[in-house]
Amino acid sequence: MEKKSIKKKDIFVSEEEKTIDWSQIQDSLEKNFGTEVYSSWLKNIELLKEFNDHLVLGVPTRFFRDWIVSRYLDKILKLLKTFKMSLNRVEFKISEDNKSNINSSNSKNIEFNKITEIKDSILNYNRLNPNLNFDNFIEGTSNKIALSSSKKICEQLSRYNPLYIYGGVGLGKTHLLNAIGLELQEKNNVMFISAERFMYHFIKSIKKNDMVNFKDFFRKSSVFIIDDIQFIRGKEGLQEEFFHTFNSLIEKSSQIIISSDRAPMKLDRVQDRIKSRLSGGLTVDIEIPDLELKTEIIRKRILDVQSQFKENFKVSEEVINYIASESKTNIRELIGVLNRVITYSRIHKKELNVNDCKNVLKDVFNQTKVITVDKIQNTVSNFFNISLNEMLSQRRSRPLARPRQIAMYLAKKMTTRSLPEIGRRFANRDHTTVIHAVKTISKLSENDDEMKKNIVQIKAMLLEE
Ligand code: ADP
Ligand code: MG
Questions:
Q1: Which atom of ligand 1 is nearest to the CA of 334?
Q2: Which domain holds residue 87?
Q3: Are residues 176 and 266 in the same domain?
Q4: 0.70 surpassed by pTM
């Protein structure tokens, strides 16, 4: 033990001062990361040396090291600190390097080489979508500033650097980034990539031992657009690489444009120095669209499809309003919903009314709650403490007739079944019986407090289940 601690005596921890019990840490790693991650990655880490402020850990390959660094290092370090406060970093040593016969047929290496042979060049993923441009981005109160800032960047590069656009899912961030790329690509070397793909290439280059090319490739762009930067949260190795890429781009005055689902300072598990870089230019947000913007997007989309298919199908004002007000927050969802309605309407060659729309869209808007006539019948009979058979029977005594009518009324209000269909489900009654029930209960639920209360309660039960 004396032999080992001769060098760097001041910081190297001698045998008797060692406090780290690696098997204990391994247990804790397994507990914290789960068995799968542990057994595929972390189990392979061994403790080589312990210092006061850091540990030297051994890993089998370079790939292992980089994978662990980019995904788990943060958490590992935190965990290590709970065992030994004074630790503030870890160093990795690659055991493969120490082996004399590097060319030995290590099965892992063979596998990695195979993976890297799959040809998907970075360029394949740098495509801009010609359909996401400024012309078809509709301006509204919620995106006005983001849109005008994006356009300004295109007129004068490096005016704000970086431009950082953030907002919730499906609000148009990628669309704007793409539009900027399209606008600038003619005169500039534009790189457009999502943070996730950036990570993918990063890992791949590590595997191929080709970091030089990776760095060159990304750093030579004059416009660097990176989408969904929140992806780097908690990934130390990736942040490190991104930070260097960012700095060298700024140094040569390349324009950087970034999108994220949250403001720079809200990016938890991202290094402070990166957060401050990200907020060093202009930060703008996209808010939730208002009714006006949603309506306009719908109208524009209908016109587009009409001209695309050279068809003059119609979507009524009522339906436009319905879709705009039902779809709450997300433009992607809004467009998805509209596409369904349009497709349905084209296939069936008919103009849809609001009821048809409800039908077409029931699983979109009621994703979690599908209320059926059966369910209503069961809930109502339970509520009034009568049997289902009694409720569906032909008997007309009020204690049975009222619940029956309430169930019919709710079936009409809460499902998309037609009156005749509902009648059939109630022991083959005529649709006029259903109409009568709906009218009766509608009126009662306005004037009769008891009825009002019952209806509210039953509805709540149906929606809750
Ligand atoms: P994000 O990247 O913010 O999640 P996207 O840019 O992918 O959202 O937008 C989702 C969908 O909504 C895309 O089809 C996009 O074209 C469309 N979209 C969003 N905002 C607008 C807008 N203002 N005008 C037209 N289409 C929009
Ligand atoms: Mg996006």
A1: 12
A2: 2-97
A3: yes
A4: no
